[in-house]
Amino acid sequence: MAVTQPAAPSAPVPAVTVPPARTAAPAPPSGAAFTARPPAAASVPSVPSVPSAGEEAGGGGAVRVAGPVPGALAHRYAALPPPLRVALAALRLEVLLGDPRDAANPYSLPALAAPAPAASAGAAASAGAVGSVGAGEGAGWSGRAGALLTAAGLGQVRAADQRVRALRPLLRRDLALGRAAVAWGGPGVPPAGRVRGRAGVSSPVSSPVPAALMGPAALVAAAGGVLRQAALVVAGRGSGEPALRQWQPVLAAAFADLLACESLTCVALRRPAAPAPGSGSGVGAGLLGAVAGYVVPTVLADVLAQLGLVLAECGHGPAGTGGGMLAKLTGDLPLAGVDAAGAAYWQACLAGALPALAGEEPRTAHRGPVPAFFRLADPPAPAPAAGVAAAGEQGDGHTPGGHETDGLEPGGYGVGGDGVGGDGVGGDDRVVLSGLLRAGAARADGGDGGDTGGAALGALARRLLTEQRALRRPCRTAGADPGAVAARALADRQALLWLAAAVLGVREAADDGRGLFLGGTHWALLALTGIAGRLGVPLPGPAPDPRAPVWAELAGRVRRGVDCDVYATRLLW
């Protein structure tokens, strides 16, 4: 698609240094939908023609969207297209960041993976202060992120899930810079505080993204960047070096785990937020946010360890781009609150709330469409008035288009009878997740006999539902001592089961007849297999091995220039 540099924004913005394009850099994949062309007389790479940050698409600006229909850009941007303004903001941000392979670019992968100065390392070591704003974020991380996002027009994107999606070009490059970007609330607004420490106290949240989900959202994207680097190595050299093919199943499992974690994070971002269980007021995350705060760092720690092994065995240690990215990401985990200490905090929150979360499951499996917050391509539901103060504004000017706003289906997930409202605190979220497990289990007997993947997925969901039922009784008495080992173990198992339910919900919502990879059974079956392995639950009988098709999807994405995210976003570079 023909592209040009965006016009200057109508309002003054902080200066952002963008390095010149270097013709010596390797060309992007030929199959990418958005490819950079070396400009004849410009200091920045060219990009899809987009309005400046102060203009509306199709409005009276000098720069217009290429193509007969402005919305076509959003549909070409990803398999699950975002609102047009989100796609435009993401493309502007990608341009400002420049070519990730250009070593002269300060935002390139080699530059960001370079060892930090001693002063910044010392600051990062002191990042654990409760309620600190900007502490340990290196020299000017917040200022650099704010300048980039102001120039890209991110202040216009106010829905939490869409804000994170528009930030993806930055998040996948660097965790420290990405965390500062997620906390950014807008021009002239101080950044939001992180959730860290024993008390879990945070400064008032100015960003639309709930404080509890800032770290997990940034970690998912940054881990995806490392996965892409590892997959590029294995896919590019696998045909000539057969020994590298042994890593294909490992990367396929890592891809499925990453999609599972991102599914949970996206659903939590779309869910109108309320205080998390056991965390007090002002944290800005419901049950789903607390589960994401624990599960995402825990599962992705295993993924990052596997990626480190793959990169090392392929000769890409810390001196290489992929190894340097992994080393930088690992060092930034405490800064973003997604290290072992951050996960332990949310585990304790879940352990203290186990009695309240161990209610009866719905008597009927879900019927009809899944709740709105699992349908990632739909506009997010507006936040209730009680949750706005904790979560920030959830709307970005897009109406739900007739979709339910409480995320519950009549006659579907069995909400009711437990006296819990639709505020996202434990009750209805728990019942919806339990209903998803029950619905997936019901398909084990009623599915099409020729769909072996669907039958295997249903059988595995039934096995996980049995595990959830077995945990109900001990969970009712676990809150007496939330710090006990038994209580934390129960919280770990419950969180993994809710992760499985989120995978089932997102997969079912994407299974709309368009043949999307996210709507298929392969990645969900592989993700649930990994969850069952972490739980120590035996797998139910023979099942097709999903690793080969999942690897084929991952290898195809890296060759075509498509990101490793749930939306299948096309990359500019």
What's the overall average pLDDT, rounded? 73
Helix content: 40-55%
Rg calc: 22 Å
Shape: globular
Q: Treating each run of at least 4 consecutive H or I residues as one helix, how many helices?
A: 20
Roughly how many Å apart are the termini?
13 Å
Q: What is the β-strand count?
A: 0
Q: Strand content of the residues, in percent?
A: under 5%
Order of helices and strands: HHHHHHHHHHHHHHHHHHHH
| Secondary-structure-derived class | mainly alpha
Low-confidence runs = 1-68, 118-139, 195-205, 279-284, 384-427
Largest sheet: none
Could you explain the architecture of this structure?
- With 573 residues, the chain is mainly α.
- It contains 20 helices and no strands.
